[in-house]
Every structure is written in C-alpha cells, then in structure tokens.
From TrEMBL:
Main subcellular localisation: membrane
Membrane topology designation: Multi-pass membrane protein
One Pfam family linked to the record: SNF
Phylogenetic placement of the source organism: Bacteria, Pseudomonadati, Bacteroidota, Bacteroidia, Bacteroidales
Protein name as it appears in the record: Transporter
Keyword Cell wall biogenesis/degradation: no
Length: 457
C-alpha cells in the first residue's frame, strides 16, 4: 500500500470529531427513511426493535469501526491491509468503499429533491394545492428527465466542494455549523407539530406498540435501518476515525453519535406523525411520505396562518438538505480518501473522479424512477434495487465482518488499548463489548438473513 509519508491530518477538536461523525449518521435515513419504515411496520413496535438493534448491534460495531480506523490511520479501503497485511480481509475494506460509492449515487438523487422542495416552498409553490395536486407534483417532478438531474448535479458539486477543502477546513468546519442549526430546526418543528389539535394520535402511534405487526421482515427492516442510519458497515465511520486524535474517547463518541442519531430520528417522527394524524392522513405512505404527505400537511395544519405554513415548509426542507449534505460528504470522503491514499492522487483529483463516477450512478438511478422505470432487477427498478442491495444486504454483511475482525482477528491488546485509550479509561463494558463482537452481532445478523431467505424461498 502506498502510504502517505506525511503526518496524517486530523480533526481539530473532540467535539468536531463527534459532530462530523454525527453529521454522517444524521441524514435522510433519519428524516426520510425512519418515518416511512416506522409507518409501514406498525409504529412503536418497530421503534422498540430498532432501539434494540442500535444498542445491541449498532454501537459495538461502531466501536469496532472506530478501532479499525484510528489504529490503522488509513481509510477503510486500506485499513485492513495495514492491520492484517497479506490476508483476504482487504476485500472487506474494498466492499465498504464500493458500498459507500453506490449509496452516494442514489442518495444524492433524493438529496437533490430536497433542493427542489426548498425552492417550491420558498416560491409559494405549495400554496393553494390540494392533496391530489401534491401527488401529481411529486410524480411529475421525480419522473421528469431533466429537473431532478439539475438538482442532483448541484448537490453533488456542493458535496465535492466541501470534501476538496479537506478534513479540518471542509468536513469539520461545515459540520460544526450545520449540525447545531439542524438540531434547532428539528426541535422547533417538532414543537410546532405537537401543538396541533389532534396531534395525540400521532404520538400514540409512535409510542404505543402494536406487536401484532411484528414479523421477520420487521426485524430485517429494523436492522437495515440501524446500519443505514448509523452509517455503519461501509467504513464511513472508520474513515472518520482515522482522523480522530489520540485522546478522543471511542466509547463516548460512539454513544454520543448513537444518542444524537436516535433523538433526531424520533424527533423527525414527532414532526411527521402528529401533523399527519392531525389532518387525517395515514402514516404508511412509504418513501413519498415527506414529499407528498408532508407539504400537504403543512398547508392544512396551519391553514389559518399562512406565514406559519410557509416558514415550516421552508424550514423542514432546509433541515432535510443540511442533514443530507453532512452525510453525502462522509460517503464521498470514503472513496476520495481511498483513491488519494491508494493511488497517490491529490485530494482534488481523487474527489473529481468520485464525483464523476457517482454522478453517473445518480443519473441512472434518477432516470430509473421515470423514463427508465421499465428496466428492472428482481422486480425492482434500479433505484430501489440499489437501496435494497446496499442497505439490506451489503451494510449488514460488511458490518458483520468488521465485528468478526475486531472480535477474533485483531490482537486483543490493540482492541483493549483502543477502547481504553491505552489504559487511561475505565473498561467496565469491555467484556460485554467483546462478547457482542464475537458472538451476538455476527449470529444475530446471520439469523436475520436466514430468516429472510426462508421467507423468500
Ligand atoms: N447515515 C446516513 C443517514 O442516515 C446515511 C449514510 C449511510 C451515510 C452510510 C453514510 C454511510 O442518512
């Protein structure tokens, strides 16, 4: 591996590191995917299983990724080669890079939609529309051969621009500005939504479990969602961890990221469901929930106060765009850092290659929703197929390998050293952490897969 000879760049502060990692985690997964998965899988019961997945699988695997990244001081594509030279483990790293690259392509399509919706909301494009108008508006827009592509390009260039500025001045600085703004917006919007008459029904849907809806599919959904939402299983966080300083506490950072991510997801639910129930809309609208249901909800809910519906709509889509941007940056960084380290390209050159490649995937997945929707893989259009393949299969698989690697292969002294900052921190959870990495997480992931295959077959 052609390692860089200069000192590795690092985040400037511990809080910067936490915010960057939380920025990666908090994204469309929390505000777009989590509410519709919850809506489709029966509300509170899904959330409970999801929380179980976050704490039992998610956080220990996040720690494992942090360990791999900080110890190797290499991006995920090179980390396994540094830690286990000459073994096939390097393929796990490459799988991670590929997964991230594929996700970046279709993720940026949806990220681009948020820009169209900011534009529509800000130019009064929502006012006076009926529920049906919103359906047509979304269908026309997402199936249009050109308009979504323009936003896709704009979003990708914004991402590119920040990544090119580097780890400290680009990624860390932008996260430090965007994350607090994002947090304030989620809280304010949730308060607005909760004060609507009839909001209790939405809260009940989110907090009162109905276990009759729980099937194996719900487990797979919850696990896929946990991996996706925490940015696990593709080396995003291990790449970021390679920029962590020596005194960054890995356990504390993982816990902070997990808690922030879960809070934002639940708050997003508290924005969407109370508002949807308040105007009598069913919560299981699927992926279009926030692009069809929600604009309509804002219109109706604050019908008496147009200013409020205007401000809420704009604020919501700005929130969504910010959340998406901190995530596309992290996805982009995985491939950029890999090309930069492995082939010795400058960051700018590496980033340009990544941008070009992922734009191609983006264009194909965007067109797959309109013009090219007749091309299908296993009955899904290319966009849905990419989402299924990456979130439900590739992320859990490579997450499982990360757990196995740190649990079984990596020298125990290194694992313990990284978890305790070489003896300076307490390690009361250490045995439990190892137990989960060695057995619980891998077996759990395999069981969920077997079950799913059984269902399919
Ligand atoms: N965690 C991000 C979200 O919730 C998506 C993501 C997945 C980002 C994997 C990076 C890596 O939207």
């Amino acid at each position: 591996m052609q390692q860089h000879h200069h000192e590795r760049v690092s985040f400037g502060s511990k809080i910067g590191a936490i915010l960057a990692a939380a920025g990666s985690a908090v994204g469309l997964g929390n505000i777009w995917r989590f509410p519709y998965e919850t809506g489709n899988h029966g509300g509170a019961a899904f959330i409970l299983i999801y929380l179980g997945c976050v704490f039992i699988f998610g956080l220990p695997i996040m720690m494992a990724e942090f360990t791999i990244g900080r110890r190797s001081k290499a991006s995920t594509g090179g980390a396994y080669r540094v830690l286990a030279p000459g073994t096939p483990w390097k393929w796990v790293g490459y799988l991670g890079v590929l997964t991230g690259f594929l996700i970046l392509g279709y993720y940026t399509v949806v990220a681009g939609w948020t820009l169209e919706y900011i534009f529509q909301a800000a130019t009064l494009g929502f006012s006076g529309k009926s529920p049906n108008d919103f359906i047509t508006m979304f269908q026309h827009f997402s199936q249009d051969p050109l308009r979504p592509l323009i936003w896709l390009f704009i979003f990708m260039f914004a991402t590119h621009f920040i990544v090119v500025r580097g780890v400290k001045d680009g990624i860390e600085k932008s996260s430090k500005v965007m994350m607090p703004v994002l947090f304030i917006l989620v809280v304010l919007l949730a308060i607005c939504s909760l004060t609507l008459p009839g909001a209790e029904k939405g809260v009940e849907f989110l907090l009162k479990p109905d276990f009759s809806k729980v099937t194996a599919d719900v487990f797979l959904g919850a696990m896929g969602q946990a991996f996706f939402s925490l940015s696990l299983g593709m080396g995003c966080l291990s790449t970021y961890a390679s920029y962590f300083g020596k005194d960054t506490r890995l356990g504390h950072t993982a816990m902070s990221v997990g808690v922030i991510d879960t809070c934002v997801a639940v708050l997003a639910g508290l924005i969407i469901f109370p508002a949807a129930f308040a105007v009598g809309i069913q919560p299981d609208a699927g992926p279009s929930l926030i692009f069809i249901t929600l604009p309509n909800v804002f219109q109706q809910a604050f019908a008496g106060v147009p200013v409020l519906s205007y401000v809420c709509s704009v604020a919501f889509y700005v929130l969504l765009a910010l959340a998406a941007l901190t995530s596309t940056i992290s996805l982009h960084e995985v491939s950029t850092a890999f090309l930069h380290e492995k082939f010795g390209f400058t960051r700018t050159r590496a980033a340009s290659l990544v941008t070009t490649g992922s734009l191609l995937i983006g264009v194909v997945s965007s067109l797959a929703l309109g013009e090219w929707s007749t091309y299908t893989i296993a009955g899904m259009n290319v966009f849905d197929a990419l989402d299924y393949l990456t979130a439900k299969i590739m992320l859990p698989v490579s997450g499982m390998f990360a757990a196995l690697f740190v649990g079984w292969v990596l020298d125990r002294k290194i694992v313990r050293g990284e978890a305790t900052n070489y003896g300076t921190l307490k390690s009361s959870y250490y045995p439990l952490y190892i137990l989960i990495l060695k057995f619980v997480a891998p077996i759990g992931i395999v069981l969920i897969f077997v079950n799913e295959l059984g269902l399919l077959g």
